[in-house]
Amino acid sequence: MAQNASDHQPNVGKTVKGVTVGGVVLLFSPVLIIFGPVWVPLFLIYWVYNYLTGKHPVGADKVDYARHKIAESVEEVKNKVEQLGTEKV
């Protein structure tokens, strides 16, 4: 049985792809580090804008849940204060 010649050759495509991706990451790492302090606030502003306009960005459900729990706690404290205020009078 004759073996296929490509069975013994290294996969050059994967090697070239790996070197290309590595080179791109190496070139853009300084750019990401330098401009990181700019990108994070811009991303937060973008997220808040999407949240406030009702586009439901990732994590909005957690923010809604936290807001609901805080509102519940405030209501409980308000009721407790009113209850204690009427007992003292």
Word description of this protein:
The chain has 89 residues and is mostly helical. The protein has 2 domains: 11-57, no CATH class; 59-89. The protein has helices at 12-52, 60-88. The longest helix is centred in the middle third of the chain and has 41 residues, at 12-52. It is elongated. The model has no long low-confidence stretch (mean pLDDT 84).
Proportion of residues in extended strands: under 5%
Radius of gyration: 29 Å
Low-confidence stretches: none
How helical, in percent, are the residues? Answer: over 70%
- Compressed to H and E, one letter per element, the order equals HH
Number of self-contained structural domains: 2
Tally the helices: what do you get? 2
Distance between the termini: 103 Å
General shape: elongated
Task: Return the average pLDDT rounded to an integer.
Answer: 84
Structural class by secondary-structure content: mainly alpha
Largest sheet: none
**How many extended strands?**
0
Element layout with pairings:
Elements: H1 12-52, H2 60-88
Name the features.
mainly alpha, 2 domains, single chain, 89 residues, 2 helices
Quick summary:
With 89 residues, this protein is mainly alpha-helical. It contains two helices and no strands.
